[in-house]
Amino acid sequence: MISGIRLFDEVDSTQNIAHRLAEDGAPEGTLVIAEQQTNGRGRMGRKWVSPAGKGIWMSFVLRPGMPIHFAPQLTLLTAVALCRALRAAAQPLDIGIKWPNDLLIGGKKISGILLESTAEEERLRYVIAGVGISVNLTADDYPPELLDIATSLRIQLGKPLDRSEIIAGFFAQFQQLYAIYQREGFSPIQMLWEALSVTLHKPTRLFIDGAETIATPIGLSEQGALLARKDDGTVVPLFSAEQLLPA
Ligand code: BTN
């Protein structure tokens, strides 16, 4: 799966480096890892806290060559690989996936995924999969306002973990799932995702059609949308994490 590794002490964002390499023709599996990001980013342009030596900040190139509307499935596949790898590395922590791309422990975020794709004529040219894992951050590493919603494996376990082992574990999982996905399509990945999800089967405050509504997420659509059942029995698809409102 990994065709080459570029290691950096400091970058603005591993996403930017990986985009540049992909534009220059880097093959699938090109991996960019940095000890520190000065301008790490999350979804919706949010800042991603990426202090030196404390976490895993990495981006890798995929060239799945498929129609662009399949891109959300790759986010979900990455989340499954990450959840399985982190559960194995950080036993006995109960790590789950919040749709579509956050990994949580006890409601607090420990890891996030950012997939950025470029397409030509509705087909994916390449995808940059960015993964941030808060491995060995301590409470001092977070701005105070994030401490209620974010945590690290070290804070949760009470001891630091080896980052290389987690990276190796993640890519072993990713390679296995990506091969299944390319052979058999999304359904086996969907089943694994649903089993690891903390989003499903609980009545939840959702933002649907411009209004706040209580509905129950019941599963995923073929394309990775979250399906929620409203009180009147109708099932609606959700396309953005921002539609999930805080409890
Ligand atoms: C999110 O939860 O909003 C996604 C966070 C993704 C963070 C990772 S860290 C490595 C890569 N480089 C970035 O600038 N962002 C991603």
TrEMBL record:
Query: Start and end of every BPL/LPL catalytic domain?
Result: 1-182
MF-aspect GO terms = ATP binding; biotin--[biotin carboxyl-carrier protein] ligase activity; DNA binding; transferase activity
Mind listing the UniProt keywords for this protein, alphabetically?
ATP-binding, Biotin, DNA-binding, Ligase, Nucleotide-binding, Repressor, Transcription, Transcription regulation
Reaction it catalyzes: biotin + L-lysyl-[protein] + ATP = N(6)-biotinyl-L-lysyl-[protein] + AMP + diphosphate + H(+)
Under which EC number(s) is this enzyme classified?
A: 6.3.4.15
Gene Ontology cellular-component terms listed:
cytoplasm
Amino acids binding biotin? Q37, R41, G42, R43, K109
Give a GO biological-process term.
Answer: protein lipoylation
* Nucleotide-binding recorded as keyword: yes
Give the protein family.
Belongs to the biotin--protein ligase family.
Q: What is this protein called?
A: Bifunctional ligase/repressor BirA
Q: What species is this protein from?
A: Paenibacillus lycopersici
What phylogenetic lineage does the species belong to? Answer: Bacteria, Bacillati, Bacillota, Bacilli, Bacillales
Gene from which this protein is expressed: birA
